[in-house]
Amino acid sequence: MSRFDRRLVYHFDWTIFSLALGLAAVGVVSVLSVTWGNTRHALDPLVVRQLTWIAVGVVLMITVGLFDYRSLSAWAYVFYALTVILLGIVAVAGHSTGGSQRWINLGVFKLEPSEIAKLAVVLVMVHYLREEPPRGGWNLRHILIPGVLLAVPAVLVLKQPDLGTALILVLITATLIYAGGINWRAGAVLLLAAMLAAPAAWHYLKPYQRERLVSFLNPESDPLGSGYHIIQSEIAIGSGGAWGKGLFKGTQARLNFLPEQTTDFIFAVFTEEFGFAGSMLLLSLYVALIVRGTWIARHARDRFGALLALGVTGIVFWQVAINIGMATGMLPVVGITLPLVSYGGSSLIAMMTAMGVLISINTRRHLF
Predict the structure, then answer these.
(1) DSSP 232-294
(2) What per-residue confidence (pLDDT) applies to 39?
(3) 3-class DSSP state of 184
(4) Which of 67, 126, 268, 330 is the most exposed place for a label (fewest CB within 10 A)?
(5) Residues sharing a CB contact under 8 Å with residue 288, sequence separation 6 or more, in sequence order
(6) Number of folded domains in the chain?
(7) Quick one: which H or E segment has residue 313?
(8) pTM over 0.90
(9) What one-character DSSP code corresponds to residue 132?
(10) Buried b / exposed e along 204-228 (16+ C-beta atoms within 10 A)
């Protein structure tokens, strides 16, 4: 038993661990900058809570990293069902903030089940797709069940409303189905169906969501309304220049011109203070994490581990792409946090747990 433990520590993936901590540190610095001087205390309560969540996340990341990921397959549907139940509780008696009902108030902590739903959907999809596809690939009949498994949490998340997370659920499911070996004809049919369904889905969006989707094409048409977020974010990013204004010297966030400074638009906060150079450093950390996750997927010892690593990496990739696309005005504002950087306990803890899964997959390939 002792020899087994030593091998786990020896092969522990310190690269993923270090990248996760590095990104979390960027988040703490950004939250600290936004809140600096708001209270008489040295640290604002937001910073203290973020540090606490990082500590909890690190413990979970290490624990999950030392755990045999193959055991997760047996619990896939249980974890999925519990997540759906939590999303149902949110729909009935969730805590509301800013017009969205996304949280369960646990007293000392507000749980956001939609963050857990990302991991639950990845796990249940990988469990279903873990077997090799039939000759020619998965057809429409084979992917009917994944479609239903996606639809249930996606609909509950959309009702909160949380368009961004629902979009992430769709994208990571599509990524896994494609990587799992879908028949090209079935893939073409699904793509066509998605294009035809888009106009119908438009009618189910909230009015403000429609305005945001339209305004990103011309945010100046409503600078104080639907275009406000994009305009202020672009100003913050542009004013940072090459090297930034310096820590605690950003004006857009500290003067409250920039909305959602610690969550959806934290990239703009960091870039204003550390400039283009800082943004490239942050992007380099994400690129390194995504490349490492893809490498782990390619070298996993079994199909379940390969798809699981790809799914977790897909969460990071799609969230980074959409969040930075929002902040730079290249994509509509749909409400997506920057993984491991944005303020939020549920998001941070869930992502660090996901990093633990990557560590476990890479560690275990040396042991069997």
Answers:
(1) HHHHHHHHTTTT-S-TT--HHHHTT-SSSTTTTTHHHHHHHHHHHHHHHHHHHHHHHHHHHHH
(2) 64
(3) helix
(4) 330
(5) 15, 19
(6) 1
(7) helix 303-327
(8) yes
(9) P
(10) eeeeebebbbebbeebeeeeeebbb
Residue type, 58: V
User: Which DSSP state fits 367?
Assistant: T
CA pair distance 341, 335, nearest whole angstrom: 15
Contacts of 350 (CB under 8 A, 6+ apart): 115, 116, 118, 119
Domain extent, residue 184, equals: 2-364
Residues in CB range of 358: below 8 A, 6 or more apart: 13, 16, 292, 293, 296, 309, 312, 313
Cα distance from N-terminal residue to C-terminal residue, the chain: 15
Over the chain (368 residues), what is each successive 10-residue block's mean pLDDT?
Answer: 61 93 96 79 84 96 93 95 96 81 86 95 95 82 90 92 91 93 85 78 70 70 75 90 89 81 92 95 97 96 95 97 92 90 94 97 83
Polymer length in residues for the chain:
368
State the amino acid at position 151 in one-letter form: A
Looking up tokens 């369960």 gives 104
At 96, give phi and psi (nearest 5°): -105, 140
Q: Rounded CA gap, 123 and 74, in Å?
A: 10
